[in-house]
Amino acid sequence: MSAAAGAAPVLEVRNLDIAYRDAAGQEQRVVHGLSFSLAAGEVLALVGESGSGKTTTAQAVIGLLADNGRLEGGSIRLQGTEVSDWPASRWNSVRGRVVSLVPQDPTLSLNPVRTVGDQVGEVLRIHGLRDRAAVEARVLELLARVGLSQPALRARQYPHELSGGMRQRVLIAIAIALRPALIIADEPTSALDVTVQRRILDLIDGLRRETGTAVLLVTHDLGVAADRAHRLVVMQGGRIQEQGPTLELLRHPQSAYTRRLLSDAPSLAPAPRRAAQPATLQDWAIEVEDLVHDFPAAGHASAHGRGIFRAVDGVSLRVRRGSTHAIVGESGSGKTTTARAIVGLGRPGSGRIRVAGVDVTGLRGESLRQLRRKVQLVYQNPFSSLDPRQTIFDIIEEPLRNFDPLPAPERRQRVHDMLARVGLPPQVLQRRPHALSGGQRQRVAIARALVLRPEVLVLDEAVSALDVTVQAQILALLAQLQQELGLTYLFISHDLAVVRQIADTVSVLRAGRVVDAGSVEDVFLRPTSDYTRELMDAIPGTRSIDFVPHSA
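and the corresponding structure tokens:
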């Protein structure tokens, strides 16, 4: 790169067109006439739903388009140098040194059979640092710089020995190793808990301020973009809907699409006020008393005995019929283990669970199987929770075949009725899951859970894999179904902004213990534990304190 272009933007994109070639050899344009620029020390966020062209644009900027993708027109300039026509071999001298990528999923981005230190050192060796001692010293310096404790130990470890947040810090260490002028952060925190997310974003921001590195932030989370970006570029269908300074765009969105994104973003929307339940109402759909659940852990010593890991430690909660109770906490807090015990998928060591009047803890065999009529579970990922070999009709009908000896015409009618309830057209019944969008698949998962007419639905991170607009649609659907069918929801989530929107009551878990509980309004406005206050402070979008959301 030429150093003479001192006043040039770090990145300049002009009239960019990108197309992909499909299996039939036809080319489909997915990015249309994109133009924006990025200055040194600036954060520019590309925001929009899946399929909007954000990641494709980022891949083009760093020369990593898929084999079936190509630039059809336009210009990409890095530090004043045109790079849109570069061959792959020329990019190798620039990646890491001028522009670096922090990808979304550290599990997929790190080599599981190489140590962390070896992978951080690789970028140094590729760009000419041959002295082994110098490489090792720089690796330790980088690992310490991104906030990893005991860097010498971490350098010898393999990725699976680190937490998700630690692995993401390793990717950042690789990205900053050669002090690049531009870092592309592609959904760098979407898979992380809210407090870990904040620490990672703080780290990137601190490095930007110290070194003057420009950051291109790709995200579907408007709360993150509102907190972290100087300017926003809003994309839909491969086109820019609008762009401008963050605060100005949030206060005065010009396009209907941007206004819809803002109204759908739970972290930017005001919390709804709910009427308090009558204090005398004692009709509990779920009762959990002093739940304890241990897992064997070889070599793990704790207060509960050697070789024992206590995932749930004396959890108690009660949920009124027809209401929504949320269990929140970071990964490892015990929330999913608690949920699985409530639906009968895990046998606790001690404690008592009653669901819809049934004592779950003592159920075995056929009695446990029949519990499925009263309580159903909706999983996090609609991509993996549906059998790809079955049609949508077969998926929704299957619980009826397993539990209700209904005549075929009645089963068919129940399937059609439930499909209509979740807002899907009958045409999808003969399709398979791969032919549906993520939001449609989650609607199918909800229809399958409700076809037996259960009283309780347990939703384990059921909207965390969805874009903000699809997420808002599913949350609205759940609220409608609850009102129509009198359902009780147990909502498991690490996303407190979503919890604030959907739940009536909440339990905050940390290390298997309840540290806060009560109405959502009380817990959010008057938390009693430092941990809950830390979770509240980490909700993205809270930095935009003077932003007033607009309705679509």
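(Above: one complete record from the training split.) The chain has 20 helices and 20 strands.
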